[in-house]
């Protein structure tokens, strides 16, 4: 609350600031806290702050996108996406969605189709309707009955040295000890 009161008082002293502040000062000839709260409610700053707190991006079912997704926040894909995904957050591939490309995320949930490798993840969850064609490297990995996967999975290893140690410490065996 102090943040809203301070900007309402400080713009009145320096006049060279943006003209939008002057418009908010005009309805306040009488100093009541209610108009200041009312002016703050119509300010574009709270809307921008609430948009930043909603940190999930969504690709709708009728969209087809090719490119690269990179950044912080959660991503939910319901349409089709071709390209690499690198997010510091969760990735959800919904039922009916198709993704082609490599993935790096904190948590990956697959209910649709992913063709590509999951290079790094803290947790990967392959749901009943999910299909994965590619390799998985994660801390934990859960697979639901009825899901499909074609590839190799490495999970449960503490790979502090990076991906260069992967051939020495992999989570699968092929019968000959390699």
Detailed description of the structure:
Mean pLDDT is 74; it is low at 1-15, 17-30, 32-54 and 162-178. The chain folds into two domains: 2-53, no CATH class; 56-165, no CATH class. The chain is globular and about 35 Å long. Strands 1, 2, 3, 4, 5, 6, 7, 8, 9, 10, 11, 12, 13 and 14 form a 14-stranded parallel sheet that branches. It has helices at residues 2-9, 19-25, 33-41, 44-53; strands at residues 56-59, 64-72, 74-77, 80-88, 90-93, 98-100, 103-104, 107-110, 113-115, 118-126, 131-133, 136-143, 148-150, 153-155. It has four helices and 14 strands. Helices cover 19% and strands 38% of the residues. The chain is of the alpha/beta class and 178 residues long. The longest helix is centred in the N-terminal third of the chain and has 10 residues, at 44-53.
